[in-house]
Amino acid sequence: MTEVEIPETAPDVDPDLTVDNRGRGCASGIARVQRALEDLECGSILRVRSTDRRAKREYSQLAAQTEHELLAIETNRRKLIRKEYTTYLEIHRS
């Protein structure tokens, strides 16, 4: 399996919904994202904010296992050691 290149720059779109998972672990964060995905219409943009270092892997896997398109994952350093990840997903349904 080859690794997919993940864009690191936010798309030039306004998100329809933001899930703020900063300070939460990925397991509870993914559950919140999955609930949000159920409520969004096709073509909507979901922005997920996270401080969990597994965000890049977890949200990439979520997109690969669903029809949703991973648009970008931005990484920003906050303070000395804390990183924040902002993920953008476009909702697709068959």
Account of the protein in words:
By secondary structure, the chain is of the alpha+beta class. It has a single domain, classed as 2-Layer Sandwich (Translation Initiation Factor IF3). 27% of the residues lie in helices and 32% in strands. It is built from 2 helices and 4 strands. The model has no long low-confidence stretch (mean pLDDT 87). Residues 1-20 are annotated as: Disordered. Residues 18-75 form the UPF0033 domain. It holds the Pfam family TusA.
Strand element count: 4
Instruction: Report low-confidence residues grouped into runs of 5 or more.
Output: none
CATH superfamily heading: TusA-like domain
Shape: globular
Strand order of the largest sheet: 1-2-4-3
**What integer value in Å does the Rg equal?**
13 Å
User: In angstroms, what separates the terminal alpha carbons?
Assistant: 25 Å
The percent range for strand residues is 25-35%
Kindly summarize this structure in a few lines.
The chain is of the alpha+beta class and 94 residues long.
Descriptive key words:
TusA-like_sf, 4 strands, single chain, alpha+beta, TusA-like, Translation Initiation Factor IF3, SirA family protein
Blueprint (SSEs and pairs):
Blueprint: E1 17-21, H1 26-39, E2 45-50, H2 55-65, E3 69-78, E4 82-90
Parallel strand pairs: 1-2
Antiparallel strand pairs: 2-4, 3-4
